[in-house]
Automatic annotation (TrEMBL):
Species classification: Bacteria, Bacillati, Bacillota, Bacilli, Lactobacillales
Protein name from the UniProt record: Glycosyltransferase
Recorded GO MF terms: glycosyltransferase activity
Organism: Lactiplantibacillus songbeiensis
Keyword tags: Glycosyltransferase, Transferase
EC number per UniProt: 2.4.-.-
Alphabetized SUPFAM superfamilies for the sequence: Nucleotide-diphospho-sugar transferases
Residue intervals of the Glycosyltransferase 2-like domain: 41-148
Amino acid sequence: MFKLWTWCMNLIKFKKQESAEYIEFRKDNQDIKRLSITGLIMVKNQEENIVRTIDSIVPFCDSVIVVDTGSTDSTISKVANTFPDVIRKKLSWKENYGEMRNQCLKFVSNNSWVLFIDSDESLITKCSATELRAFLYKMDIDYPNVDKACTVKQIQPSRNAFVRPERFIKKTKTLYYYGHVHEEPRSKKQTSLLKIDTDMQVMNVGLTKNEYKKFNKDERYVRLLAKNLKDEPDNPRWVSLITPQFLKCGFISRESYIQLLKKCILKNANLDLDEYNLKQGVYLNDLLERLCLEMFFIKDIDKTEKYIKIARKIYPYAVFFQVLEATIFFSNIENKSEKRLKQIIEFTNNTSDEVIDNESEGNEEALNAVVVRLLIHMGKYDQAKEIYEAIDDSFIKDGLSNEAKLFK
């Protein structure tokens, strides 16, 4: 059931999570008949998305299991009518995503590969079913007796940004999920779970405002993340996932949040941040981003710029730090523009027009041209346009030809 034995030359790219460069997987002639892939989907009220989700994984799976957690719409009838071979199960919902995934995994045999896809996602990959099976088989051969998971790039419609959820896992007695929300697979073995990044993608349509409102995700996710932090207050994963909404709800003060970030980032929290006082880890990049943002938010620009410089040295290809650095640059321009504008206004308000006209020999409208440029730097285009249109001197107006293009 659900097998598609086709072949194409679209290769899967992968790397260990701590590595920087991808390598291409090339299929060899090894026997892969013993490898099993089970598609596993936990669902509730996804009548608009469930068919697309299942359809995207059917070609790659030996079997597909849909676990309903309390749908009240036509989700399950659509599954039954469109995919009669899909196995349907039921579970009562418990407000703990990690525990719910563990319950779902009980429907899968040990030593099977599991494609654990969300019901608002669809798998996007140009590789064939044969290529995928061969790749997973190679992971078994190269990393035996190790709990492992393969990540994919989770993207959204009309966006290039992505995160890396673990969507392929090897079901074993020692692999389990943890986390009330933003759950992750873990291993009970002494060696930690091996994560392998791939260039495969899933398209997620569940991150829209309507979907968040439908499932009350904002309030629920904040509350559940607070439980994660209570259980594991020093886990950098949970700290890296703290959002402005979390701070707004009052679960932690901004000052405490900054201290928590430093605790997760610094080897010695009593010393300031430098490249020798950093705890290495997969979440360091995210934590540094958030710390820089917090420093910028509280207007400690000196430390923000210092931290950005350190972060850029460690992560030279992460554009966030360059963007924030440029934001500070533009903010400085805006502040200086505002200060200069106030000086001009004070000058004109406190000086006679006749005196200005005499000493400037009728060229005082050049000052209006300066005001136009300052207002544009400050993002006040309507005011800039109004002053531009009031300038009578054609020579001065011609000097604003580039600015005038912004008003069209």
